[in-house]
Amino acid sequence: MTIFKEQSYFQNWSMQEIRSANANSKVMVFPANSIILKDDDEVFVYFVQSGRCKVIREVTVVKTKLPFGKSHLALVRPGKTPPELSKDQSLEKRYLVLMIIGHGGYFGVGENLDQTWIVSEEKVECLLVKRSVFKKHDGGRELALLRQKLISSYPSRKEAFKSYIMERNWRKYKKALIDELVRVRCKHVNTKYRDIPHVIRRRHEHYIRKL
Asked: CDD domains under this entry (predicted)?
């Protein structure tokens, strides 16, 4: 029962309730980059003991091809019929990281997990407690509070999509910058020692010898 005493969520529970939670729980370890929860299994609440999880949501976007190889992405509202597409447009899927859940966090409390995955970023250990235990504790009021708190911490779809676009643009900028640096460094230098003026040779003799 030590693990329950360490959890702030169970500090006000009676010993009998903690015994019930202990009898209706289990500890699971998930390797890195594995799906911990997809949709809602409606059975367990997951408490993260160690490691970090990503909350990833699938969204639909309209991709529009622009001149010079560029493109523009527009978010399609869920449940809304996509607009008629031109020849330069296509519907595609993108995956947004809504948030990171680490030690002391939780999920699986009845939040909306439609088209959403909880994925381990590294090795993750979770304590799984049956939801029925919470319902017996106080009729599910604490579970509802946990759900409300978790949902309020999620960014909106627009905020998550904006962060995705910023990260996407930053990755493109870094790649272009690295490619340019590599291109410049690999550029062949045709300068010969005899091409350097005599006065510069004398003033910078130490460096020019390396040519």
From this structure: CAP_ED
pTM: 0.73
Which has the closest alpha carbon to 132: 23, 47, 30? 23
Q: Within its chain, how far is the Cα of 130 from the centroid?
A: 26
Q: What is the pLDDT of residues 45-80, one digit of tens each?
A: 999 999 999 999 998 899 999 888 788 898 888 777
Give the phi and the psi of residue 49 in degrees, each rounded to 5: -90, -35
Catalogue all structural domains in the chain, each as residue range(s) with its CATH number.
3-53+98-154 (2.60.120.10), 156-210 (no CATH)
> What CA–CA distance (Å, rounded) separates 84 from 128?
45
DSSP 125-172: EEEEEEHHHHHHHHTTHHHHHHHHHHHHHSPPHHHHHHHHHHHHHHHH
In the structure encoding, which two tokens stand for residue 154, read together?
Answer: 């999620």
Bridge-based pairing of strands 53-65 and 89-101 is antiparallel
d(CA 183, CA 177): 10
